[in-house]
Amino acid sequence: MSARSNNELSNVEVAKRIWMAAAEGDAKALEEVLSEKIVWRVHGHGILGGEHLGRDGVIGVLSDFADQVDDLRLSLNDVYSSALGAVISYDLWARRGASVIEQQVLVRLQIEDGLVLECDAVAVDQAEMELFMNWIH
To answer: Could you give the C-alpha distances from 132 to 39, 40, 73, 96, in angstroms and in order?
Structure first.
């Protein structure tokens, strides 16, 4: 088994930092790991769906989603890394009124020099996520 490169190890650290910042709603910590020119893509429709540009755009849409739900719980499963970035797997549980969703989400991060340049997020069961997200206006 070969030793992991320093870049892979630092990419794990960056992925864990962005995970903690997003899970805790810590905008200042998010600013520290997001490139000014970040492109954040969320597959699907609803309040999160689409392409979000720049730090303010990403932080704003994450904050908007948290504000739209009555209860939100996130649980980290795994972080995988390479020299180019990382993949985060987490479980999302959210409730708004009587509507509840439990979903596994995968997030691919392109990381360079300790900053996230691109992000692609997709729910494992996209149809279920669409039903929940369409309920949110």
So the answer is: 24, 20, 15, 9
Which pair of structure tokens corresponds to residue 34? 């997001």
Pairing of strands 71-81, 115-123: unpaired
What pTM did the predictor assign?
0.86
Residue 32: strand, helix, or coil: helix
With H, G, I as helix, E, B as strand and everything else as coil, classify residue 84. coil
Q: How high is the mean pLDDT in each 10-residue block of the chain (137 residues)?
A: 55 94 92 95 82 93 87 95 95 92 96 95 90 71
* Encoded tokens for 68: 């739209």
Domains and CATH numbers, the chain: 6-135 (3.10.450.50)
Q: Which residue in this structure is represented by tokens 């998010």?
A: 30
Question: Are the CB atoms for 90 and 109 separated by under 8 Å?
Answer: no
